[in-house]
Amino acid sequence: MYSTAFIDLPALDAAAGEVRLPGSKSISNRVLLLAALSNGTTTVHQLLASDDTRVMLDALRQIGCAVDEAGSSVHITGLGGRAPRAPAKLFLGNAGTAMRPLTAALALLGGEFELSGVARMHQRPIGDLVDALRQLGCRIDYLGNDGYPPLRIAHAACAPAPDVPALVPGVPPLALAEPIRVRGDVSSQFLTALLMALPLAAGRQSIVIEVLGELISKPYIAITLELLARFGIVVERQGWQRFTIAAGSRYQSPGSIHVEADASSASYFIALGAIASGAGGPNGAQGIRIAGLGLDSIQGDIRFVEAARAMGAVVTGGPHWLHVQRGAPGQGWPLKAIDIDCNHIPDAAMTLAVMALYAQGSSRLRNIASWRVKETDRIAAMAAGLRQLGASVEEGADFIRITPPPRTEDWKAASIDTHDDHRVAMCFALAAFNPAGLPIRIQDPKCVAKTFPDYFEALFSVAQLAAERIPVICIDGPTASGKGTLAAALARQLGYRFLDSGALYRITALVALRSGLRIDAGHEERIAALARTLPVRFESDRVLLGSDDLTEAIRSEEVGMNASRVSALPAVRAALVALQHSFRRLPGLVADGRDMGTVIFPAAALKVYLTASLACRAERRYKQLISKGFSANIADLCADLQERDARDGTRSVAPLKPAQDALLLDNSCQTMDQTVALVLAWWQEKQFGAVSAPGRQPGAVTAPG
Ligand SMILES: Nc1ncnc2c1ncn2[C@@H]1O[C@H](COP(=O)(O)OP(=O)(O)O)[C@@H](O)[C@H]1O
Ligand SMILES: Nc1ccn([C@@H]2O[C@H](COP(=O)(O)OP(=O)(O)O)[C@@H](O)[C@H]2O)c(=O)n1
What family classification does the UniProt entry report for this protein (predicted)? Predict the structure, then answer.
């Protein structure tokens, strides 16, 4: 997962290959609650691992369910008629799929609970559900604003299971004789919550729920009914207005249950297949194959396929897979504009808004009022991002109309504010396929953790981009100027890969000496042969050679000096070129060394030549070595650095020198934080044209040459 402040996606154009998607969020959290209410132990396979399921699992543990996580499976032993453990304070993050059903279930089970979430959760309405539960006789108080979480459930026990006596005598019986009325036109989660909770009270009598107003998001109710059936609860449905839970209902675990891949998450990859040219996947694969989800899915968002087809996507599928390809030119590509009622696919419909950027004409998405009360006001968030990209957008209470930028040159490089909304982040990533070849910045990419923590990794695994178009920042310069520290910090902040090319020379020198090879021209070929097959891996901050951890061993000054000698051998340098190029992968690379900008990545978009005075560098290296437990003295270090710089600068192949187009930066008088901020500002300027980070430090930069 990318936990950086933002992620910059370079312009992409092709995608091919297979993606595996995380389990459905809607199914995962419903199944968890149903398992918790059931008799017996349920093994849930392919459970989505995400923020929303995490808060649900934590809450279930708190109320007394046994939860045992084993890889992608979770075993849950339900309450099975036992009272939940109380009192309990449950924090439910921003998970509506936990807040609503748990409120209903705990209100009926009895006990004292406080349910709260993040600030946005406290702005998401729950009043209609609370009204319905109060009608029944449950006691629920608002702890903040009326109609919104946080909530306090104070009722002791209002709905004992048939064979359990009421825990507190004198509790008024639940008013179950009359139909329970709930509004269906704000969020279908209120009805889902009641449908999952009321079987707890349907021991002796059947219970009727009536929906007031037109029910939105019906497919989610269909999922609820399908899953209730798997846990032994029969609900008779008359249209979408009246639901009857049979008398004698009792939750029974099905033993084990598989969670389908998430159909809403699939929408991004269906859209990807529809907009990306699709050749060149592994083994010549064409288009995008989505594993774990078929056309017969029980999830409503599978109907996104129909909308994508209407726009031009070519989608085929079987029971557990989908395949998507871009339509033929003039038929399905460019995409066709669409005017569609999105009530049946409220979440996936956001993806259509970004697909509309690639359509001919204006697209209108209607009946999406529920977007206003989701993780953020999604109509406003989508409209803002689309406008930033150059589209014309009209928005209303329950619709959005999108007209793409008229010409290629009307597209703009945008920095998308994701408002802590996973879907905003995921669908705007598709704007990276813009015809203008502009990068897209997605702010706070970790918000995708809500449903798809490895979304960007999955996107990069199928996105195809010629290596020379993957962004590279080169940091070259003499020893101890701070290249490594700067490059690592940039990579961390940008979410880019990091190439410490010096480490490759250090490892080669160490391995050569350990193999008994003197480092001189006479052994050049044998050392090059070693270098060509180094089984080196960089994992977090560790440098591994096979199973050997060389992180510390390669950092001695002696190894540094030998690295300088080994690096003067042309055959060794040639042997390490392919390995260095292999680090250039999405979303980008920061490479640190001596010849990154001159030889290895000569077309890199940003090259920095980092220097500092000899005295500064010697003092920095001295402190660095002492802190790592090596002995050192300044005078020897000065001599070593000079010798190393002289050898690096005068060797015949790839000598140390600034690339023609490198920006020279003397950081003798800067802190590392200042250096990092300055280079980030240059990178921002290169990519997006404006410097928003700290300005240039006067005098710190000299023009090259
Ligand atoms: N601007 C700076 N101010 C103070 N210390 C620095 C600065 N730049 C680097 N250092 C320190 O100098 C040492 C050498 O930096 P390093 O990144 O290893 O250099 P290089 O990779 O160029 O050999 C490290 O301990 C680092 O923390
Ligand atoms: N791209 C590179 C990187 C390092 N090197 C050599 O490898 C040695 C060790 O590199 P390093 O970056 O780890 O060295 P320091 O700058 O940290 O001392 C340098 O002194 C260079 O001689 C090189 O020739 N080319």
Answer: Belongs to the EPSP synthase family.
> Tens of pLDDT along 600-649?
999 999 999 999 999 999 999 999 999 988 888 999 999 999 998 999 89
**How many angstroms separate the CA atoms of 111 and 172, rounded?**
15
Q: Label the pairing between strands 288-291 and 207-212.
A: unpaired
Rounded to whole angstroms, how far apart are CA atoms 271 and 41? Answer: 39
Instruction: Compute the distance between CA of residue 146 and CA of residue 19 in angstroms, rounded to an integer.
Output: 44
C-alpha span between 499 and 490 (Å, rounded): 11
Average pLDDT over residues 96-104: 95
Ligand 2 atom having least distance to the Cα of 477:
16
pLDDT at 352 over 70: yes
Our answer on whether the CB atom of 620 is closer than 6 Å to any ligand 1 atom is yes
1 has pLDDT over 60: yes
> Cβ contacts of residue 90 below 8 Å, gap of 6+?
58, 59, 62, 63, 102, 113, 114, 115, 116
Q: Measuring from atom 10 of ligand 2, which residue has the nearest CA?
A: 502
Please, where are the H alpha helices in 522-567? 524-532, 557-566
* Tokens describing residue 237: 């449905």
Q: What is the location of CATH 3.65.10.10 in the chain?
A: 6-18+265-464, 25-258
User: What amino acid positions are annotated as catalytic residues?
Assistant: 347
Residue of 474, 479, 608, 620 with the most ligand 1 atoms within 8 Å of its CB, for mutation: 620
Tokens 């001599």, residue located: 639
Q: Which atom of ligand 2 is nearest to the CA of 641?
A: 18
User: β-strands 235-238, 242-245: how paired?
Assistant: antiparallel
Mutation probe of ligand 2 site: the residue of 472, 476, 486, 501 with most atoms within 8 A of C-beta: 501
pLDDT of 375 higher than 90: no
**Amino acid residing at 349:** A
Pick the residue whose CA is nearest to atom 18 on ligand 2: 479
What pLDDT band is residue 695 in, cutting at 50, 70 and 90? very low
Would you say residue 37 has pLDDT above 50?
A: yes
To the question of whether residue 199 is assigned a binding role by annotation, the answer is no
- CATH number assigned to the domain with residue range 467-702, chosen from the 4 options 3.40.1210.10, 3.40.1370.10, 3.30.505.50, 3.40.50.300: 3.40.50.300
How many residues appear in the chain?
705
| CA distance to 6, 431, 445, 482, 693, per residue, from 440 (Å) | 10, 7, 12, 29, 17
Q: Evaluate whether the domain defined by 25-258 bears CATH number 3.40.50.1110.
A: no
Give the DSSP H or E segment for 72.
none
Query: Measured between alpha carbons, how far is 540 from 413 in angstroms, rounded to an integer?
Result: 31
Is 482 annotated to bind ligand?
yes
Amino acid at 58: D
Sign for the CA dihedral angle at 532, 535, 541, 542 comes to negative
Give me the chain's average pLDDT, please: 91
**Torsion angle of C-alpha atoms 137, 138, 142, 146, degrees rounded to 10:** -40
| Rounded CA separation 180/43 (Å) | 33
Residues 6+ apart with CB under 8 A from 548: none
What is the tens place of the pLDDT at every residue in 158-198? 444 455 444 433 334 688 889 999 988 878 889 999 999 99
**CATH 3.40.50.300 domain position(s) in the chain:** 467-702
Arithmetic mean of pLDDT, 354-370? 97
- CB burial of residue 124 (10 Å; 0-12, 13-18, 19+): buried
Please state whether the peptide bond connecting residue 179 to the residue before it is cis, i.e. omega within 30 degrees of 0: no
List the CATH code of the domain at 6-18+265-464. 3.65.10.10
Per DSSP bridges, beta strands 589-593 and 497-500 are parallel
Q: Is 62 annotated as a binding residue?
A: no
Q: Which helix (H) or strand (E) segment is 70 a member of?
A: strand 66-70
Is any ligand 1 atom within 6 A of the Cβ of residue 627? Answer: no
Is 374 annotated as a binding-site member?
A: yes
Could you report the predicted ipTM of this complex, rounded to two decimals?
0.95
